[in-house]
Amino acid sequence: MTHLGLATKAVGAIMAAALIGGCTATPTTSPTPTGPSQSPSPTVTRTPTLSPEDQKLEDAKARVVLLWQTLDGLLVDSSKSINELDTLASGEALSSLQVMLTTVRQRGQVQVGATKIPSQSALAKGDGWVVTSCVDRSEAILTDKAGQPVTPAPQPRLSHESTVQLVGANLQITKDEVLGSC
Predict the structure, then answer these.
(1) Beta 110-112 vs 141-143: how paired, if at all?
(2) What local confidence, expressed as pLDDT, does residue 55 receive?
(3) Helix, strand or coil, per DSSP, at residue 121
(4) pLDDT under 50 in the chain at which residues?
(5) What kind and span of H or E run contains 32?
(6) How far apart are CA 101 and CA 108, in angstroms?
(7) What are the φ and ψ backbone dihedral angles of 119, each rounded to 5 degrees?
(8) Residue 23: which residues within 8 A CB-CB, separation 6 or more?
(9) What is the pLDDT of residue 67?
(10) 98 vs 60, 86, 88, 90, 95, CA distance in Å?
(11) Is the N-terminal amide bond of 118 cis, ω within 30° of 0?
């Protein structure tokens, strides 16, 4: 389940608790409507069921988004363990992320803001999937010890091609390549 799915369920649970908490067993008197009811009729929205292949593509895209969210968290809070990446990435991708994070932390740099991924596409390839993402870091600013933006700032919007594979029981990013601007 993705963080988005968990967040949706959490918001739903909070709203349900608020609605239930407002209910009382004591009846109240209220005016009885005298005319026809004006309440709108409910609409039913059906969520399309994805084929197993399409679901795997969606899962691969969600895993890439989760990697960037986790990376944001590690860049914002240097007290978090870089081992959080171990279930999301492996091989070349994990090694390069660990080196980058270690270097940033040694310099005393932290990130302010978060990365956005405004667009993604995915396709099955070999024994995995290739996810192409436009990674927008325009609001994710790397700052130095004094809180000043690091210069030169990296290009804010870059297209990344991530190879996602099933490693054990987890989908993991095994390779990530910058393709250029997006």
Answers:
(1) antiparallel
(2) 93
(3) strand
(4) 1-33, 35-37
(5) none
(6) 11
(7) -150, 150
(8) none
(9) 97
(10) 21, 10, 12, 10, 5
(11) no
């795997």: which residue's tokens?
Answer: 56
DSSP string, 111-133: EES--EEEEEEEEEETTEEEEEE
Q: What are phi and psi of 76, to 5 degrees?
A: -80, -40
pLDDT at position 40: 58
Element (H, E) at 87: none
Please give the model's pTM, rounded to 2 decimal places: 0.71
Q: Residue 95 has what pLDDT?
A: 96
- What amino acid is encoded at 38 in this protein? Q
Name the percent of the chain in helix, strand, coil, to the closest 5: 35, 25, 35
Q: What tokens does 39 get? A: 């309440």
Residue labelled with tokens 């860049």: 75
DSSP 86: G
- What pLDDT does 41 receive? 57
- Interval 130-146: pLDDT, tens: 999 999 999 999 999 89
